[in-house]
């Protein structure tokens, strides 16, 4: 968990987020994460994990299946709107958008993240960003799709996906420490939703279910 940021569990559960805050205003929402926060990057990379068909997008503007794994908008779209930014955050790989569009938000969600994150954080720093909140990944192997398709494992969490998420979080934690030490004035915090969410999944009764 981030030590300096009072972030709620709900917020952490919703999305692995990177938010750049300048003068207490949030000028942009940059999303790193897994498919649960992908706004459609999967349409532009070779993968079987697609959502560009109905019923995905059924309740999206125009009924369009954008590549979001949702019937409508996803959590990060709502967060962007709540900050007074665009009601939807575009996918980085979507050719319909350019760098000007990304100035107020972009989604990098997919699986090639750890390497991109460092370069991107350094660029943000170069552009003047100093306070950055970097969100980790949830236990991805416990997401509904993974559990539902884990028939051999009696619909339990899929360990190998959880291992990937935990490893990514470890890398982000190390990266945060490294950049804070290296970049003068940088205040980067890492919020790790993995263990709080795992606690909820293991003992839902403690949380009112
Ligand atoms: C991005 O596209 C918008 C129109 O969609 C255009 O106004 C803007 O100049 C473009 N920006 C760049 C850097 O190409
Ligand atoms: C994080 O850094 C520690 C100490 O340098 C190292 O042992 C560990 O393997 C690193 N974790 C990851 C996931 O790279």
TrEMBL record:
Keywords, comma-separated and alphabetical: Signal
Pfam family, one: Lipase_GDSL
Keyword Lipid metabolism: no
UniProt cross-references to InterPro entries, sorted A to Z: GDSL, GDSL_lipolytic_enzyme, SGNH_hydro_sf
Signal peptide: 1-24
GO molecular function, a single term: hydrolase activity, acting on ester bonds
Family under the similarity heading: Belongs to the 'GDSL' lipolytic enzyme family.
UniProt cross-references to PANTHER family, sorted A to Z: GDSL ESTERASE/LIPASE EXL3 (PTHR45642), GDSL-LIKE LIPASE_ACYLHYDROLASE (PTHR45642:SF32)
Protein name from the UniProt record: GDSL esterase/lipase
Species of provenance: Linum tenue
